[in-house]
Amino acid sequence: MAEAVRLADLEGVGGLSMRRLAGALGAGAMSLYYYVASKEELLDAMIDVVFEEIELPPEETDWQSAMRRRAISARQVLGRHPWAIGLMESRTSPGPANLRHREAVTACLRRAGFPVLMATHANWLLDSYVYGFALQEASLPFDTADGFADMAEDVFLPQLPPDEFPYLNESAAVLAAAGYDPAEEFTFGLDLVLAALEPLRVPK
């Protein structure tokens, strides 16, 4: 399974096939069917590996801290495995790590006082935020504050004449000079989501 995940990390999941995986392993394609019955079963197992890497919300802390740690971990894991972003919610035969993760998240929210329906709303909202941010982050043409500053100065600003785009020009210039790091947007938005959810629970 590790080799399948490695290939997907390098090449994406679109070109992954049983034949491609067998070639990378130096085995016959048919021999893989001894371990997995189909590519869908292979994807189930690969997604389970991804869920296994995500930190479960710890039980020894408050719900916001627990869900914050879990969300930050998920974002980091999806940064390593961007091919998985669109598959995390698509599996109809989830593996044990997938189910353990979902049970732990639901338990954290329910113990915090969220009724079943509200816990479901909270779970959807948090996952949508994490997956959406990870997807957007994976498509950025830079991955550091220095990279953003270089892009702003060399690429963005020349396309933003101040007489035509005064606010965009100002934003690009100020952010580049300030050492702005887009990666910090994740925790900013996450904390807003968690704060908005707090009044919706019914503490026991």
Structure commentary:
The structure is a single chain. The protein is 64% helix and 0% strand. It is built from 10 helices and no strands. Helix 5 runs parallel beside helix 7, helix 6 crosses helix 7 and helix 8 runs antiparallel to helix 9. The longest helix is centred in the middle third of the chain and has 23 residues. It is flat and about 65 Å long. The mean pLDDT is 89. Keywords: DNA-binding, Repressor, Transcription, Transcription regulation.
Descriptors:
0% strand, 204 residues, mainly alpha
Record the SSE blueprint:
Blueprint: H1 2-11, H2 18-25, H3 29-32, H4 39-53, H5 63-80, H6 96-111, H7 116-138, H8 145-156, H9 166-177, H10 185-197
Helix pairs in contact: 4-6, 5-7, 5-10, 6-7, 7-10, 8-9
Global outline: flat
Beta-strand percent range = under 5%
Secondary structure tally: strands: 0
Q: Which stretches are low in confidence, meaning pLDDT under 50 for 5 or more residues running?
A: none
Structural class: mainly alpha
Beginning-to-end CA distance, first to last residue = 43 Å
Number of helices: 10
User: Largest sheet, if any?
Assistant: none
The string of secondary-structure elements, in order, is: HHHHHHHHHH
Give helix % range. Answer: 55-70%
Radius of gyration: 21 Å
Taking all residues together, what is the mean pLDDT? 89
GO molecular function: DNA-binding transcription factor activity; transcription cis-regulatory region binding
Pfam families: TetR_C_1 (PF02909), TetR_N (PF00440)
Organism: Planobispora siamensis
Domain HTH tetR-type: 1-54
